[in-house]
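idk why but the lab printer keeps eating my pages so im just putting this in chat instead. protein + nicotinamide-adenine-dinucleotide:
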Amino acid sequence: VSTAAARDEPASLQLALGERSYPILVGEGLLAAAGAHLKGVLKRPVAFVVTDANVARLHLEAFEGALARTGIKTHRIVLQAGEGTKTFDHLARLADALLDAGCERADMLVALGGGVIGDLVGFAASILRRGMDFVQVPTTLLAQVDSSVGGKTGINTRQGKNLVGSFHQPRLVLADTGVLDTLPRRELLAGYAEVAKYGLIGDEPFFAWLEGNGAALLAGDHAARRHAIVTSCAMKARIVAADERETGERALLNLGHTFGHALEAETGFGDALLHGEAVAAGMVLAFRLSARLGLCPPAHAERAERHLAAVGLPTRLAAIRGPGWTAEGLVAHMRQDKKVAQGQPTLVLARGVGRAFLTREVEWEALRAFLADALAGRA
Ligand SMILES: NC(=O)c1ccc[n+]([C@@H]2O[C@H](COP(=O)([O-])OP(=O)(O)OC[C@H]3O[C@@H](n4cnc5c(N)ncnc54)[C@H](O)[C@@H]3O)[C@@H](O)[C@H]2O)c1
Ligand SMILES: [Zn+2]
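predcted complex ->
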C-alpha cells in the first residue's frame, strides 16, 4: 500500500491472485487520467463503456474525453439506473448491444457506475464470447469500497438477489474519489455503512478513526474519503486474496447482511430501504444478538450502534419496521439466504468491535425470539 505518495498521486493497492492479480487505484481525478491507466490493459485501443443514465449525465463525457485524448475509441451503452437493471432481461439486451457494436473476445468492457452496473457488466464479461476482460470504474462509495473489488458478479431473479452470477475478477479498478461529489447524500451514507463494516469486522483502530473522522468524510473531506476507501479496499483485497470463493474468511464480509437482506426483502429491495441502510441496521442486530448471547460486552454493541446512529444511519428495527412485519416473516427471509447450509443459519457475530466471527451455533428459534424482541423495541 503506497499511501505515502504525493497528494494527487493515486494510492495503489494490489489484489494478489497470481496471474489474475490486479491493481486498485484510489485518488481524486482518476477519471480524467483514465486513458493512461486503461492503455496498459487494452489489447487494441477500443473500450466498450457501459454506464447508467445518471452517471452518463454527470460523468460520461469527461470519461470518454479522457480516453479519446490517449487515442482510445469508445462505444457507449447507457442503461436505466437502479436495481431493476440487474435482471436477465437487461443482461440479454446488454449482450445484444455489445455484440451489435462489434465487441471481440479480446476487447475490454468498462463498468462505469455503481454496484448495479459493476455486477451486471462483470457478469456479462464473464459469459460474452466465453469470457472477456473488464475494468471497474466505480462511482458510488459502496462500489468503491466493496462491489468493484473481489470479482463477485451477478443479477437478481424473482427468487432473490444475486442468485445468478459468477466469480470473474476485473483487470483493473479505478476509484476516483472526486466523482463522489455528485452522489446524493443518502447514497453516500449507505456506502458509509460498508466502510464502517470493515472496522467492525476486523480493525478497531479504523473504527476509532471513523468515530473521529466519519462526519468530515461524509461532509466532503477528500483526504478522509481517500483514507477510508484505501483502508477498506486493502482489507477487502487481503481477505479476497486469502479466500476468493468464500469458503471461509470472506464470509466475514457478510456482517449485518443476513439480517440486512431480510429487511431489504421485507421492504421490496427498493428505495424504501437502501442496501447500506439495511446493512447498518443488520450490523447493529448482529452486535446486539452477540451481546444477548453473552459473546460480546454490551458496551461494544452500544459503541457500534452509537456511531452508526450518529452519522444518520438507521439502527433500530422498531424505527424502520413496516406494518405487518413479524419475526417469523424475517426468519423466513433469512432461511432463503445463500449462507444457509444444511438448514442451519450461518451468522457473522462479534466478540467486540473489530472481532467478528462466523458461527453455526445459533438456532432458528433463538433468532426468532431475538427478532420478536427487536421488533417490539425490547432488544
Ligand atoms: N459484487 C459485490 O461484491 C457486491 C458487493 C456489495 C454490493 N453489491 C451490489 O451493488 C449494488 C448496489 O450498488 P450501489 O449502491 O452502488 O447502487 P447503484 O449502482 O444503483 O447506484 C446508486 C445510485 O447512484 C447513482 N450514481 C452512481 N454514481 C453516481 C455519482 N457519482 N453521482 C451521482 N449519482 C450516482 C446511480 O445511478 C444510482 O441511482 C447492489 O445490486 C448490490 O447487490 C455487489
Ligand atoms: Zn453489502
